């Protein structure tokens, strides 16, 4: 996963719940999905055996496990202790985990569990209302890095082209100091970020089959086609079956 993230070629992640895991995993692999984001917070069941069975179904793809808290748009209904234990069970079985910077009660423990198994720790920040100012955004990045993030994810709602440019500037600054970033501009105005922010250093772009999971997402066929058009290395990798 670290090699993929540092390969300089856009990666496309698609989110999945726990319905029809095996056929959906096979279809995702055949379609050219790079990363399967398993949205465990949306699962009908979150007992460890069931969750790990879903991971096993997607073993042909790099798996990112996300247990998103309700305060950042997720659907996790259990306690933080239960979430931590599930993260610990998942850490040795997946390639990456996503934990919110705001989850202070378990943040350090989740990162520690990930690093113990050489699993990528993505520390994320979501703002579904607005895009904060440049100083606040930089503070988020610095805080996440201090916490031990391997990758910092920033996803904010944009209301103007200026908001998009502010996020682009954040990416460029991060690239200058070697910080791995995933940056997403949510909303209709921000749809451009899904295709062109990878050119500025955003490591993963998120897409979907069926129903969108975030404002401004493009579906997988459209995302895949645009990336093939604008990133020759992406097209070459896909032509080679990667």
Task: Give the topology.
Blueprint: H1 2-5, E1 11-16, H2 21-31, E2 35-39, H3 48-57, E3 63-66, H4 80-90, E4 96-100, H5 107-116, E5 120-127, H6 134-147, E6 151-157, H7 161-176, E7 181-186, H8 193-196, E8 204-207, H9 220-230, H10 232-239
Parallel strand pairs: 1-2, 1-8, 2-3, 3-4, 4-5, 5-6, 6-7
Helix pairs in contact: 9-10
- Subunit arrangement of the protein: single chain
Overall morphology: globular
Main CATH class: Alpha Beta
Rg, rounded, reads 17 Å
What percentage of amino acids are in beta strands?
A: 15-25%
- And the CATH topology? TIM Barrel
The assigned structural class equals: alpha/beta
Ranges where pLDDT stays below 50 over 5 or more residues in a row are none
- Give the mean pLDDT: 96
> For this structure, what is the CATH homologous superfamily?
Aldolase class I
Order of helices and strands: HEHEHEHEHEHEHEHEHH
Main pleated-sheet profile: 8 strands, parallel
Secondary structure tally, helices: 10
CATH architecture: Alpha-Beta Barrel
Strand order of the largest sheet: 7-6-5-4-3-2-1-8
Question: Gap between N and C termini, in Å?
Answer: 13 Å
């Amino acid at each position: 996963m670290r090699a993929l993230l540092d390969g300089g070629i856009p990666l496309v992640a698609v989110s999945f719940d726990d319905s029809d895991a095996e056929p959906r995993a096979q279809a995702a692999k055949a379609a050219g999905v790079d990363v399967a984001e398993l949205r465990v917070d949306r699962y009908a069941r979150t007992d460890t055996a069931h969750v790990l069975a879903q991971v096993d179904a997607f073993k042909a793809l790099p798996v990112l496990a996300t247990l998103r808290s309700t305060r950042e748009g997720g659907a996790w209904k259990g306690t933080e202790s239960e979430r931590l234990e599930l993260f610990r069970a998942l850490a040795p079985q997946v390639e990456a985990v996503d934990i919110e910077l705001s989850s202070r009660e378990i943040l350090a423990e989740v990162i520690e569990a990930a690093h113990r198994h050489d699993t990528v720790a993505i520390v994320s920040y979501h703002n579904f209302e607005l895009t904060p100012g440049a100083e606040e955004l930089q503070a988020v990045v610095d805080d996440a890095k201090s916490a031990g993030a391997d990758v910092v994810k920033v996803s904010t709602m944009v209301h103007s082209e200026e908001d998009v440019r502010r996020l682009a500037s954040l990416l460029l600054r991060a690239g200058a100091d070697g910080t791995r970033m995933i940056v997403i501009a949510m909303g209709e105005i921000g749809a451009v970020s899904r295709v062109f922010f990878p050119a500025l250093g955003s490591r993963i772009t998120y897409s979907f089959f069926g129903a969108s999971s975030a404002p401004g997402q493009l579906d997988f066929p459209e995302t895949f086609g645009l990336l093939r058009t604008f990133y020759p290395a992406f097209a070459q990798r896909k032509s080679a079956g990667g």
